[in-house]
Fold each of these.
Amino acid sequence: MPYGWMGKILRVDLANRTITKDDLPQAWMEQYIGCRGINDIILYEEVGPDVDPFSEDNKLIFGTGPLEGTPIGMGRISIQTKHPNRFIAEGGAGGFWGAQLKFAGYDFIVVEKKSDSPVYLLIDDDKVELKDAAHLWGKDTRQKYRMLREETGLRDVQVGSIGPAGENLVANAKVQFTLDHSGGKGCGTIMGDKKLAAIAVHGTGRVSVKDGEGFLAAYRQFRRNLDLKDTIDTFVPSWSFNSANMLLELFNENGWVHALNAQKGTFEPMLNDVEYLDKYVTRPHGCFCCPFPAEGRRFEVKEGKYAGITGDEREVGFAQAGTIVGIHSWPTVIKFRDLCTKAGLDEDQAMYSISWAMECYEKGILNRKDTDGIELRFGKEDAFIRMTEKIIAREGFGDILARGAAEAARLVGKGSEKYALTIKGKELERMPERNGYQMALALAVCEGGPDHTRWYPPYPPNPRAIPKGMKLPFDPVKAFQTRSVEDKGRLVKWLYDSRAVVESLPSCVYMIRGLMGIDMGIWQELYTTCTGVETTTDELITAGERIVNLERAYIVREGFRRKDDTVPRRMLEEPIPERHIPPIGKNLDIMLDDYYDQRGWDQKTAIPKEETLRRLGLDGVIDDFRSMGISDEIDA
Amino acid sequence: MEKKVFVVSNELCSGCRNCQTWCSFVNSGKKGFGPSRANIHVLKDPYGKLNVPTTACDGKRCAENEKGVPICVEMCPTGCLIYTDINDLVERRTEWEEKRRLQPVFKLIAPWKYPYPWRPIEREEF
């Protein structure tokens, strides 16, 4: 067993209430690194195209990697399942849960079948049991954590649970971990369908490292890259204590926000991050071994209607919820965040569904009768909060919005589909598509719906800081030009491959700052010193490419083709009026051609070619494609 | 030489457990990470309101390295954990108390950890 691993997969059968501990195959560790990569291969092999997402054959996988449990892992956990829209629902969460799972002695949990009554899984080192959770069902995620902490009597227990949103099968519901860490859009829905209320983990073991001195030296180098003073990355200092809120004014200045359902690119008056820091932040609150001092913070509303609300926030950038529905009040946005956190509801799903409904209301497609008497206009704070509550409870019009903007638009009809901001049926993530073509391309081709963490960050380090003679797979000046199509294929391929490696180690993609985003050397050193597996940066990137190709093969098998790799109609056809920013238009097709070429995928269908799959050692996929007749589509 | 001790400023602790994890690493002879076997533990209340690093370690042996401070202090990202003597401690706490009235960023980080020229924000009451 290589260092870093625990070497165990925990298989939990909810129907028969049995638990088995399998060994982790050595070949997977070598080929797919860990975490997201190994989740992919489990999902590919065990959840085939004939499995309905809501059937009992769908599986829910929680995965960690070799570096989890070390300070590089940041407690990252990758959750995967087949999304109700049939693509891969994959999401990462930070916190302490993932690390605790490693200390308990397991790398993966595979949840199989369905239970007929609510249960929860308790893992306390070797002791693993399924317990009745009738008393937990219906409680919010914070209550679930506190009840389980009391019940188990374990001071340091970490709980991953679903809230009422997951229990009510709201689309894209997420899994919420102890104290406001969350992830896995769509995984909460499947977890609710399986009637698994929570997974409580407690571990006291140790993750061993091959070369301690080497690891410490590499880690110190890693920390220097992220230090406020030593970094070459201009984002680091403000990111360190403001995280995504620092982007508010930058985005607004440049017309990058999705204001009023992305009809506009700027919003006045914009929420102010200094005001937030001054009035609402109380203290820092990070994930497991976060090297940034205050990438996550705790907030508290001290006065007004929503006084007393507290919670944590990290990257989320939930403040943009305000601009999307046209409000500029910090307490309302914080209340929205609080509702979503307690219910395990995905913020993006809620804010884009509601903003779609607001636009429809203003355009006369919806009226008061449809929305249960709520005047659903932009800027109406109470309507926004009331509607969020209705989505969670699935009552009245909330039941329609709970299906997501795309499905709601299909139900309402009357041309409202034009205003739904979704890709592959899943809501956007507040990224400026029309202003950064690399982002438009990256969101369009993403295998898990629009997910920005798979290619983040999309900006270069200071170009003058790039060492002379360093070979890059793209031209750093051309590739990062925001509104040009040049070199975007190679850039996005690199972003996807390298981030797949980081997410599979795992580590947090928000740590990819400075040169760490273009030079994989430091990640390779950390990986080698921890596991003892000799490898090169090129081999790691190839492993990343293998992971992305396997994910693509998965959604191709489910029937996704090039036509699904697109951005919402609004981004393609409508300009941003205030900043005179043109729509993307035909540029997307040019970039897609380029990207598929670079990947070795068929341009017309976006299916990976056989030579590409063979080069990456994915022979099993070739056989599948042949037997299903997918290979024939390329020739036609 | 004055006697050095660990001092914790609870308000600045982000609860990240860098100290605890790295302590277990040194304790194990640099063989691995297992925070439950550390000399410092970060306690957390279930409401998320408080993180309390707790230690009964004197840090003497650990501080005998090239950095001159124990590894928990070196790895602390916010500066909440320090290893110092009484005179230095008084000086640092005074500086912090003064500065955090003027600059909200000192709710999150310690001025001794990031001693850069922070610009105070303008407020009426000052």
Amino acid sequence: MPPVVSTTIDQFSFNMNKKRVLFHHRFTSRALLFLCLVMFVRNEAHAQTRLDDPERFVKVAVTGIASIKRTGDSVQIQTSPTAPQASLTFPLGSGFDPQKRNLFEITMRTGPRMPALFLFWRHAQSGPYDSVRQLIYRDGEFHTYVIPLDEEQSWRGAISEVALVWDAPNEAIEIKKLEFRPIQWTDRIRYHWSRFWFPAVLNPATVNLIRGPVFMGLPFALALALVFVALVLLFCFVRRPVGRGKAGTADADPLHRRRVWFQPAFWTLMALWVTYDLREAHDHIQTLKSEFRFYLNTSDYPRHLLELDDLYDFLELVAQAVPPSKGIGFYSARPLLPKARYFLFPRRVVNRTPDVDFIVVFQDPAVSFQDGKLTEKGKVVGDRLKRVGGFGENAFLLEKNHD
Amino acid sequence: MTDIFGGALIVLGLTLIGYGLIWPFSSTGIRTSERLLLGAAISLGLIPLFLFYGLLAGWRLGIFSPWVLTAGAVLGFALWVTDFRHGRQQGAERLMPPARSPQSRYHVLLVGIVTILLIEKVFFVAIQGFSFPTYFWDAIDNWNYRAKVLYATGYLDLDPRSETFLGGGKPHYPMGPSLFRAWMATLLGRWAEKAIVFHSLVAYLLLFAIIWKALSKKIGRWHSFFFAYLVVSLPLMIHHAYSSYADLLLSLFFTGCLIYGHEYLITRDRLSGIVSLFFLVSSLFTKNEGVVLILPVVIIAMLIAIGQRRLPLGSACFYAGAAVFLILPWVILKFHFGLSFTPNEEKSIFEFHPNGLVKIFEVLFRQGSFNLFGPLFIVSTLFYSTIWWRTELRILAFTVFLLLGVILGVFLFSGNYAFMENQMTINRSLMLFMPAYIYLVGLSAGKHQNEELTVPPGNN
């Protein structure tokens, strides 16, 4: 039906006044509704469980943590140099309702060695844990991470405890905010938006694939591909040729008809390609930022390079201390033997053997050195050794004492 | 900084040597600047082969001293100066009218953004390459480790019981990349990683430059600029530019082999044929895929070209014969020591893995390794397939698709599916055919534009 249009000035002004009144009423009712919503949201927002408040923090159980202290508005944690993982476990009372506390929010900063944070939870003290993994920035600056838990199947019922776990020995963590609260629609946008920008850093083991960013739960590459398909379909619909075209006109030429959709399709694809590439450039910049701060532009020694930690500076130190003709026994809990073999060549590097002139230990919690003795899981594997260099407790070089 | 400067000097020297190497061959379409690019690319592949012959003959790596490099470079420079003074410039058939500058405001904007993105990539790659020690696994475990051993020992250890047998690492891998890096270190007099990384970095830059140069003759400078950008902006490619792996090199050699091989078929340009042959030989000595995948694909393509009377039998025999002859010492050595051409012999048995099709979709459309290559592949194949069928691009398209089919076949129809499932090699293998495919799309765009321009008068 065609719309009714006022034809006279009177009718027009009457309609306008009527509209104004209607508008006024609508505005008032909507404002009230909005106010109620805001108040509801505010009330809900106050229904939070802060894990970093002093009372709750007293009860926290720690593993793999060398020191933990509260200063001002933050909690400072130093993970242990010898443990592969660090964790904080918070017991939750019976009053904790996961249905109403379905968003986890943490504001923290970490160093370069830590690629991700894990949130674990379980229902009974002895039950199995469920977990979510959260990628984190490694630029040493504060970032807020929100993790929606409402879609997690096991985030229901009575949860007895939650744990925060980090995979990095000897790393500093500073937490400013640590809480559970009800999820709001703005949180979901925040979550997706922040997740989109997390920089993907390649695993130092391989350069076989790049996972790529995620946008609104979809891989960004796929999201752009869908946008592309939608735009092409829309364009084809708008510019669809009518019939086969009159003879003698450009429309009659099949090449021309193909070009009509192909050229815009190609340039659209180019624009989307460049969009993806801009996002990729963001990853590069984030990677460089972390590398500059902790490795290239720092006076600290040893320097840290992502998950490899201070391995490069340590191996350089070993190369300076061990003559090229000597053999080295290499102990590490991580698969770093090929790296040691390469960087220390022509020195002969053998995996986990004490029957050589020098022993190198790098991040191996099972191995310790005391009173000239090297012990592995409590068993002495080498004695008459002396420490000739290293970085603290988890990276050191031992030489056999032939006296 | 000294190492970086040293590495740059070596690359310059190699470029001039390569220039000298292809100087005797005349060309109707390859100009001086393109000859320089090809000289650099070819020397990356051929010099290790010559080094291998020398080492096999019992020479030491030190024989190929800086004096050899300097003498070769001076000779190449002299030839270049001669060419430059005599204006040895030739043209090439152009499929599209030359676009001297971007044609619209949007075009200018896109060129600007793309240029900034390219600069960002070069900066990122250079920082990663020059500022950090070797980082990734295969370089540590094989390519650079082997190079370091070869540099330290200085000769070819042929005792299979020795830890330094064929340089150590993984002896069944071809020695090309490692030998080249060992030679760079020999020239510099020390193991200098900042110089060694030039081997990867230059391959990345050459891939861009060769595609840009080769396409610009056909479709104009600005259009080819976009296509060259598409190649080097594949995210995985960027990380391979500094990783000291060999996949990017192999991709460069295969692409070069196809571009100039196709050029030879169309124009009978002798230099193009020789360059294609050199690229093919280089690929055979870079990774096992060269012998196992690329050589059969190229031979099948040649047989078809012979069948279509596009390639004289004599030329084909010379081409294939020379390639086989040049790589024969390496192949004989491998047979002699029982070294395999595949990573795992028991994975070579026939078995179909339909799940692989889902994995391929995931790799091309969901992951971030290749930007939007998946949609580009679908759209361009749909659009250009008729052009490929109708024109002389058919043989090029056939070769590219045959290689793709062979790559996918290896994963879908054998136990190598495991490498697709764990994502260890599928992305890297696909990276091998992508530059050649994008070049094909670029050529097709020019061809299409050309057909558009020459629509029969009755249709206008």
